[in-house]
Design goal:
heterodimer; A: 115 residues; mainly beta; 4-stranded antiparallel sheet; B: 109 residues; globular
Chain lengths: 115, 109
């Protein structure tokens, strides 16, 4: 597709459960980012991939959060033992990481609700 | 880390009015983007503008990097301009965007 896509668009789960959120970046984009947005706030950085490797995971809140990008394209954000405080919109972005422009393009997000 | 402040936090306009949104940041940056988040939550790129001036239709933006601020101008506003406008920056050596809290714009018919 032309833009960043994310699935599912909505996810409702129970406290303590495991969830996986998927991101398909723009074709050819080597850089991929995950952000989290709580109600009324701006997005907050979680993790950044360059190719297959996590180049910066300083935004992951704790070890319940993990992300992978095994083939340098699709990425999955994994959350173990979900807590109610994890409820938020999880946004994925990608960029071509060229020197002339580092524009990050965002997907529509996955709204996660932990009951 | 770098701080990003946006003003005003809320803005209500009548259709046809012009407006200026401001973004101040606390340190030098090598990436600055303006986004419009529509009522459905989609973040739409408006400008990539770490310095200089750009225009796109009724919207224009100016970043004065040496003074650490950026301005977004909206002319002849329309109801479809409603939503939240975010400024986001990244510093040299870091790829992560740091977002401000946004300006919520409401354009009334």
């Amino acid at each position: 597709g032309a833009g960043v896509s994310q699935t599912p668009s909505n996810k409702v789960t129970e406290k303590g459960k495991y969830v996986e959120l998927r991101c398909d970046p723009i074709s050819g984009h080597t850089a991929l980012y995950w952000y989290r947005q709580s109600l009324g706030q701006g997005p907050e950085f979680l993790i950044y991939f360059q190719g297959t490797g996590a180049a910066d995971d300083s935004g992951l809140p704790n070890d319940r959060f993990f992300a992978v990008r095994p083939e340098g394209s699709v990425s999955t954000l994994k959350i173990q033992r979900t807590e109610r405080g994890d409820s938020a919109v999880y946004l994925c972005a990608s960029s071509s990481h060229q020197a002339s422009t580092d524009t990050q393009y965002f997907g529509p997000g996955t709204r996660l609700t932990v009951l | 880390g770098i701080q990003v402040e946006q003003s005003p936090p809320d803005l209500i306009l009548q259709e046809g009015a012009n407006s200026t949104l401001r973004c101040n940041f606390s340190d030098s940056v090598n990436n600055l983007q303006w986004f419009h988040q529509n009522p459905w939550g989609q973040l739409i790129n408006l400008f990539y503008i770490p310095s200089g001036t750009k225009q796109n239709g009724r919207l224009s933006a100016t970043t004065v990097a040496t003074e650490r601020y950026s301005l977004l101008y909206i002319s002849s506003s329309q109801t479809t301009d409603s939503g939240v406008y975010f400024c986001a920056v990244a510093q040299g050596g870091s790829e992560k965007l740091v977002f401000g809290k946004g300006t919520k714009l409401t354009v009334n018919p």
